Fold each of these.
Amino acid sequence: MIIKSICCIGAGYVGGPTMSVIAHENPHIKVTVVDVNSDRIASWNSDDLTKLPIFEPGLDVIVHKARGRNLFFSTDIDQAIDEAEMIFISVNTPTKTYGAGKGMAADLQYIELCARQIAKVSTSDKIVVEKSTLPVKTAEAIKDILDNTGNGIHFEILSNPEFLAEGTAVQDLIDPDRVLIGGAETKSGQEAIDVLAKIYASWVPEHKIIKTNLWSSELSKLTANAFLAQRVSSINALTELCEATGANITEVANAIGSDSRIGPKFLNASVGFGGSCFQKDILNLVYICKSLGFHQAADYWEQVILINNHQRTRFANQIVKALYGTVADKKIAFFGWAFKKNTNDTRESAAIYIADKLMDEQAHIQVYDPKVTALQMQSDLNHLNSRSETKNSKYLTTHTDPYAAAVGAHALIIITEWDEFKTYDWQKIYNTMSKPAFIFDGRNLLNRSAIESIGFTYTGVGQ
Ligand code: NAD
Ligand code: UDX
């Protein structure tokens, strides 16, 4: 079977870039990305490519080439489902905020809605692909819904989790470390795996396409994220010790990472990991372990989250302590709000937690981020603990010019590792700040001695 028409439900950070690359590399396949959010779809269809809803380096070029040729963004979900031979489910699976498993389990309501809609609308056989990150065994529930509420047609379920990282999504999609496809251990399951593998084989070398059963594929995604986050928490768990002893975390990370068994990547000490995946997926893993009675394994993975929470709190406390125990009515500049560089995504960014803590101490926060809008920052703070808007508008100001954000500040905090921060005129920034001027570098981005020679008091992470 050769697929001619694909539908992807969910035009977010995964659905948008993933389908753009699949369409770009397979001009013979019509790819329609649908979403309930009509504003988002309108942005994907915008003639002005700087208005795409997601900022990812290189994405505009890919969208420009494929959109209108074989890549379409639409709100007509039913039509796209019915027309497609293969349907990717790429909707959000956030942590539950209610009921059983609140604060830990994945909220699968959007997944179930998709399954029910696919079942209702479909009039021909379909391959349904889980692209969202899901708890192990979710394919069983999806199959159950499809088979029991559908129109008697055949649905084959595949798991094809996405491993792209934001900020490098296009590069990760074009040259992935691997593509993982899980399917049922039946003849039709294996055939479906091969059909999807053929789509990827248009540009991914076959040896990078891993084929497994459904449950291995679902579980591998959760655990890959847990391993990555664990590395960040492992290095961050050493930062206090470095600060107390005179060891330098960058030197330690370099020494550790030189061991080829460990490797140098993902050992950058930081103010704490953010993003929509790490915390959510580990909490989900912990919940699954707990539900099955595997309490030791659950506790083990939960520590990765606890260290991350500790790192954010510790950083905020360090700032207050250094500023003579009070930040009330002081101005504090934030450089960066996104959870990492080269993205406009702010989900779970350390910035939100640290700003909130400092606002509780009545500090005035002045933020500059190259890609995050003022509206997004306000909304992030409002969402946290259902914070009142009045408090945020009193304590938060946002700037489109970094130099303006620093004026009058007692301290400047680097939250995101945007490359442009390294190129700034730091003498000019120093001149406009209140003295003594402090820098808290949550990414160890700046050159310490150069910054100190200007007159700043510099604090990095773990050094
Ligand atoms: P997102 O919130 O950016 O996008 C999800 C989209 O789905 C939203 O636009 C929403 O409106 C839409 N949606 C929800 N329910 C719908 C429905 N019933 N019909 C149509 N549209 C619907 O989320 P995301 O970051 O793209 O993540 C999607 C999934 O991919 C999650 O499971 C996530 O864990 C996983 N994932 C994310 C990343 C990442 O870097 N963001 C990487 C790998 C995997
Ligand atoms: C992650 C996974 O990397 C990706 O494979 C998966 O598909 C989705 O989740 P993402 O969250 O987009 O991707 O970015 P990632 O590069 O993993 O960074 C996550 C967080 O960890 C960021 O806040 C980043 O700044 C932080 N981090 C990363 C560190 O603090 N130190 C590091 O050494 C690496």
Amino acid sequence: MKILFVCLGNICRSPLAEGILRKKLNDQHIDGTIHSAGFEPYHEGQHPDPRSISTARKHDIDISNKLARLFTVNDFDIYDRIFVMDALNYADVMGVARNEEDRKKVDFLLNQLNAGSNDEVPDPYYGGADGFDKVYTMMDEACDQIVRLFS
Ligand code: 4NP
């Protein structure tokens, strides 16, 4: 299964989600393709935010090599599921979906914890380091549920 996480800048939330899920799959020897992308080009080609890198590192996850990239319509052809962080990301991705097959792939990440709730992973960019720990915990729990989709 191929999974794409999407946030706004692809430097804070989605690279962290990518690292979390990849580690869970690696630890359980499960094959999968996990990537992340953003919708805004502000940080295209850049490494993750240092606060995301250090939050990941606290959990033995290395995301320092990731480079931010933009979401493209082609991603609908590559990935089986596309998980977004918030309502803006959802509107952005759904806005470029071509058909019902594309739209069916897209969901809020936290709907893996509370189906249909459309709860958001808040953008930690303008806050302090504790915001990154909070989003880590939310995304870690949601990724435990995603691992179940592989079996
Ligand atoms: P992300 O966080 O969407 O989780 O990567 C953000 C990163 C950068 C900006 C906004 C959100 N920005 O405005 O530059």
Amino acid sequence: MTAYETFKFSVDSDGIATAVFDVPGRSMNTLTATVLKEITLIAERIGADPAIKGAVITSGKTSGFCAGADLGEMGENAGGDARLSEQERLQRAFDSAYGFNKVLRGLETCGKPIAAAINGLALGGGLEVTLACHYRVVSDSPKIQLGLPESKIGLLPGGGGTQRLPRLIGAQKALELINAGNPVSPQEAVKIGIVHATAAPGTEVSTAKDWIRAKGDPVQPWDKKDYKVPGGTPHSPGGAGVFTIGNALLRKNSYGNYPAQKFIMSCVYEGLQVPMDAALRIESRYFAKLLMHPAAKNMIRSMFLSMQELGKGARRPAGQPPSDARKVTVIGAGMMGAGIAYVQAMAGIETVLIDTTIEAAEKGKAYSAALLVKQVERGKMAKEKADAVLALIKPTTDYADVKGSDLVVEAVFENREIKAAVTKLAEAELSPGAIFGSNTSTLPITGLAEASRRPENFIGIHFFSPVDKMGLVELILGKKTAPRAVAVAIDYVKKIRKTPIVVNDSRGFYTSRCFGTYVAEGQEMLAEGIAPAIVDNVGRMTGMPRGPLELADDVALDLAYKVREQTKKDLGSAYVAGPSDALIEALVVKHGRLGRKNAKGFYDYPANKGPKTLWPGLSDLVAIEVTEADPAAVEELKKRFLYRQAVEAARCVAEGVVTDPRDGDVGAILGWGFAPWTGGPISLIDTVGLAKFVEECDRMAQAYGPRFAPPQLLRDMAARGETLYGNWKAAPKAA
Ligand code: NAD
């Protein structure tokens, strides 16, 4: 019997073949060129061999069925070979995408019934392989995810997903799933109609064989004469609404920033009107076009490759032995400390939670208890497991409990003296090798480390709120922080399943500093007389999750005021006042408008939790002159928002705060929601081109103020025709 490299093939006494998908040397199956070639060979063999009645495809990996395409390869191919013409690049991308479609079309038309026995996660191309099978049964495990997540990284399902899924479950539901990219559980998949049945784990293959023996239909529904698209085709009365309303909704939610979602709509709309073979060509054409789009290349790089690399510890200093934080003390059981204790306990870390009173410490623990109860109620966690997690948290006021901790995370009030005091108290109990991390959001680490007896073991471990939802942790190196502290902190961040970035010390570090520019730019616009509704709407149109004014309200206006006053004091004559300084001062000092926390900020927040409305008094503080913005004016405002943040990121690179563009891009997207379609501010600058970016920043500095002035480094690099990623790849720098 012919052997395959990526499948184990056998035929049982009933004439049913089993192809066990098992790419050698890999922990997870992905769709390599060899896999695709072998699927074709197997389909041809099943079709041609009269002794084979049908076949089951399953996985030999415990990690899953198949995770889809190799995104490393895809990222390399995105944008195409620069030496080729645009037409040639498109043609190559089309040939490759259509090649995959032909493989799967060959499988579903081989003439014999093919069943997928899905015994682990099937995502992207992995699920598409199963959609090309005539029957799908999935192991009934809540750990399994099925989905087409391509749009999350700026792509579309290019293995027939945009054609088979709507033909199975209707355009509306398919578009919802493909555009959101969120996976579903086996139970949901059956309910929606993506798979035919669930089976007890371990019985998927026998269930699949039962189907082949009992029914074994070798023709897909869409290849049958009487086939009708569920919910109707795009021109039927039912189907038409999906696209008119769907396009409007898409525009409302994404502001047209994501070409992938637009193309997905087109694939489904056009594809459903023609037979499958033509439909797959349509999909491949859109896929190729997308792969050449800068948004796809940037999103694949930042949202997948870089995130994965950082998550695996790409920034871990070389030569440091592995560490494992088993016991970690959290000092300060407030909003942040309570969240940190929860994620630690969830990762199995013995957690000491210290506050000034036992009530405060217990309140911090109660936060975890509430989250765990919710998980148990939703059936996501067994009661015993929840109890065990909660038991890992010890609330206390006694520093003797710190003894034996591998790491301390300090999250007390943002006050230098209090932080210094708790550093000393904890260090008195710590073993010499233990690491001390501060969750400060603004105080420079080098200064805080002065309170430490061992500043080499002192590091910034900056979490984001809410801690259990936010995936990023920004690690900040003080002047004396040693590589071992970085390694231990990275190992800890990995253990609590978050993504670490590593930056050098600076006022506001990287993320707070750049995020602040977005909020500040919105206030500058308002102070210039641009209507606040325009300011917030345009902010969202850039792809930021919220408008700058509503964000300022969330963060608290008095905090912004205090930070500015402190900055003014620290910088002295170097401080450049902006037009919004007076506005914030008037809001906070004169009108007592502190933001969402006292229900009065740029917006009024009704007591009944109804929708917020802009505070009418704003027009007494600023003369609103711009109440309508034409498309060109909107583009200029969008550019101000994006470039203002990007130029700050570039300054962080120039000052050595950010030393790795992956930190810059991933930190921006995960940390403050920087427009994901750009791939992050560093990708944005490279995509615009340094020369053009510098030219635009110079123009905006003239028009709006020196805050837009590009750093000298960008000018020099632009003059040399360099890119930020290109330079870093040529000579990566250590943090
Ligand atoms: P918080 O006011 O909610 O909590 C602070 C906690 O520290 C309180 O429970 C307080 O009782 C306790 N505390 C004060 N003095 C203490 C002492 N001497 N010993 C032990 N406990 C003491 O504040 P928070 O929002 O959780 O912020 C804590 C830290 O995290 C600050 O440094 C802040 O800048 C930083 N941070 C906050 C956010 C955020 O979004 N809130 C985000 C990132 C970082």
